[in-house]
Amino acid sequence: MIKSFRLRLTAWYLAFFSLLFLIFSVFLYGVLSRALEKRLDESLAAQAVTTAGLFQDELEEMHGDAPLAAANVVSDMRVPDGAIAVFEKTRLLAAGGPVPARQLEGIAAAPAGMIGVSYGKYGARAAVHRLATSGRDFLIVALAPRDSIAAELGVVRRSLFFALPLLVALAGLGGYVLASRSLAPLGWMAEQAHKITDSNLDARLEIGDAAQELAVLAASFNALLSRLDRSFESMRRFVADASHELRTPISVIRGEADVALSHQRSAAEYQETLAIILDESRRLSRLVDDLLNLARADAGRVRLQVQEFYLNDLLAECCRAAQTLAGARRIDLECRPGDDVAFRGDEELLRRLVMNLLDNAIRYTPPGGKVSAALEQEGTHLRIRVSDTGVGIAADAAPHVFERFYRADKARSRQDGGFGLGLSIVKWIAESHNGDVVLASRPGSGSTFTVSLPRD
Ligand code: ADP
């Protein structure tokens, strides 16, 4: 099997061209040989007819002496290398030319028209013409060997035979040049693609004036590069943001430990340090959990543990769990889970979703404010609505709050322990249940997050 595409193309081209040339040659040869035969037949038929006419006149002149009339006519008419013969019934009256009489006598029984006769190397053609005059039956035969046709066809055969290798060589060369020319842009594209690495993913293949098919290939490749570039960029940002987030708790832990170890301290001081370290470690493990979950979600490796449960129960449980935090902040938490609503989904993930929303609502609402959570049914959808009377989200920040590591109010969020991942996890959980989450907010007077989940 030929590996090179160029050689393979050339070979196909060559094979196709040779076959075409062969078919053409056979066709040409056939047409020519038939045309030559027809020409010979027509000229023999014409000779036979002319001879018959002359013989009839001569017979009248000779007062019915057929052998004499035949001898006169035969000596007047000449077929080059062939023969003219006149029979009465099957008796040969006269013949001219180099053909032996024995061979001519065999023709006497032939029907009128053209016949092939075995004669010499290539055979002969004979025109048989019947003449009935004054009650007698005559037969006029004009015969010519096929030698001249064979000679002419031989010339054609030899020409084709010599032309074939020459044409095939030319076709091969042409095919090779053609294949090289049409494949050149591919090599050039491969060369460009070779230079693209993860450090210059923004580079693109130059399409130039490449043929349409190759331009499509290059455009698809460029589109693939764009997609790769985007996902590389978001991965890079994710890693950079994650490292940045990890740095703060780690440096707090290190700082606390350094200070504690620098000299002897009281038991109370050690306790305080350990409490801070424990607090930061919790933060750290929450962050690592979040990161791991998002990374798994990106890789499409999170399998939903789908089961049937009561969504209203889940909401009520979340409200109970959030009550401590709300109480500590003097926030009134109101929960309206409504009637029993059975739902099929991943209970653990949906608990996370509700907790993240409640946690945010409480954290971004000043003391004395109100947070409410409700479950509503609307047609085929269930809606979980979490509203607060908190700081709200500015219009320019609203489209970004679901992005990873995005914080509308950086100082406050970090101080409150947020990483900017909570809402991106909410969005991912809602979407993995074929639902969505929307935000309505008025800065200064509060926000409402509504999660819609389709009931299957
Ligand atoms: P964080 O951990 O910082 O809270 P989130 O992804 O949960 O991260 O939220 C992203 C940002 O959206 C927050 O930093 C905050 O500025 C804003 N935000 C989220 N929920 C609320 C809310 N209920 N009220 C006001 N701002 C909010």
List keywords for this structure.
single chain, 456 residues, Helix Hairpins, Heat Shock Protein 90, 12 strands, binds adenosine-5'-diphosphate
Task: Write a brief caption for the model.
This protein has 456 residues and is of the alpha+beta class. The chain has ten helices and twelve strands. Bound molecules: adenosine-5'-diphosphate.
Plain-language structure description:
The chain has 456 residues and is α+β, with helices and mostly antiparallel strands. It folds into three domains: 148 residues, 2-Layer Sandwich (Beta-Lactamase); 88 residues, Signal transduction histidine kinase, dimerisation/phosphotransfer (DHp) domain (Helix Hairpins, Orthogonal Bundle), CATH 1.10.287; 149 residues, Histidine kinase-like ATPase, C-terminal domain (Heat Shock Protein 90, 2-Layer Sandwich), CATH 3.30.565.10. It is 56% helix and 19% strand. The chain contains ten helices and twelve strands. A five-stranded antiparallel beta sheet has the order 2-1-5-4-3. It has a five-stranded mixed beta sheet with strand order 7-9-10-12-11, with helices on one face. A two-stranded antiparallel ribbon has the order 6-8. The longest helix has 57 residues. The radius of gyration is 52 Å and the shape is rod-shaped. The two termini are 55 Å apart. The structure holds adenosine-5'-diphosphate. The site of adenosine-5'-diphosphate (ADP) has 22 residues, from α8 and α10.
* Strand fraction: 15-25%
N-to-C SSE string, H for helix and E for strand: HHEEHEEEHHHEHEEHEEHHEE
Instruction: Label the CATH architecture of the largest domain.
Output: 2-Layer Sandwich
By DSSP (H or I, 4+ residues per run), the number of helices equals 10
**Cα gyration radius (Å):** 52 Å
Question: What percent of the residues sit in helical stretches (DSSP H or I)?
Answer: 55-70%
* Ligands present: adenosine-5'-diphosphate
- Looking at the structure, the CATH topology of the largest domain is Heat Shock Protein 90
Structural class: alpha+beta
Q: How would you characterize the largest beta sheet?
A: 5 strands, antiparallel
CATH classification class of the largest domain: Alpha Beta
Number of separate strands = 12
